Amino acid sequence: MKLATALIDTAALTHNVNVIRQYAADQDIWIMVKANAYGHGILPVAEALAPVVTGFGVARIDEALLLSQQKITKPILLLEGYFSLAELEQTAQCQFQTVVHSIEQLALIEQYNAQQKSAGLDNGSTAPISVWVKIDTGMHRLGFLPEQISEVIERLSLCECVAKPLNFMSHFSSADEKDGDFTKAQISLFEQLTKGFIGKKSIAASSGCFNWPTSHYDAVRPGISVYGISPMEALNGQELGLKPVMTMTSSLIAVRDVAKGGKVGYGANWQAKTDTRLGVVAMGYGDGYPRLAPTGTPMLVNGRKVPIVGRVSMDMITVDLGPNATDKVGDEVILWGEGLPVEEVARHIGTIGYELVTQIMPRVKYIYS
Ligand SMILES: *Cc1c(COP(=O)(O)O)cnc(C)c1O
Hints:
By secondary structure, the protein is α/β, with parallel strands linked by helices. The chain is built from 11 helices and 18 strands. The protein starts with a strand and ends with a strand. The site of pyridoxal-5'-phosphate has 12 residues, from loops.
């Protein structure tokens, strides 16, 4: 019997990149594969997409090393940069591109530069590092403040180990809203601060790709939409022409009748209003399905939407199949994906599709097609 299994449709990945291309036809397209490619499997995703993209974005140097050790030769960008001299040395050796977002990172690169120089290594022993200066245009998470930018540019320009020209990036906080004043202000600040510089400029993640054509500049950085999931909470990926890449499946491991008034699950917090038939699905928070999913959260059993009843436990979830159900032990259950958008499941749980796909646990099997 097929227990918790994520079916990954790699053709849907390229389909989704083509959809994004319709919005950002002329830009470099960097695909975000951080957090194990949003739970989809970083290596197979990178292998499937390498031929059609500019490069890959990761959050940790370990993710970048994994890709380069597995012969992914496309450029790799460290979205949060490096956190020690040793990481910066690896960045240079592996020719990763890196964000520089803080004074600490700026000081490290100056230190590295001085070290290279004193060792007499400034004549091309390692190629200069491609740097993206991160500007904080209002998100207030990472990046230099507008008043720091000219000093940062000046200091980076003096480092022989930094490739010229410098590139610039920023990140939107609210681009999932169309026509929002906050996003407009971020765009105009970014434009003002990067005006006249010839390096690459990038600000748009998925929602910027779809909602803010004026923000596309030289490079876009989609993540969630590549996996077929909408970056806007109110929409499903399907409505943007995207196809779900992951279909999370499992099976019914028990089918049983419960009499009117019978209580189900831990805490006995759900009670049958009529005689009915329950299905027990081999999936639980031990697989990454959130324990907080309430009664009523849908699943698909034999093409029919059925509600979760009672609490999600570690390895199992009970669903109400209905009194006349003919579903059998071994029948497939779809938790989300083809036929049941992960966005819809996420809305029931009070989260977003990003979180559901990213928090899958190691015991879930993956099948790639
Ligand atoms: C994760 C990330 C993205 C991608 O965001 P999505 O909403 O998943 O498209 C883009 N840029 C940066 C800096 C990120 O960290």
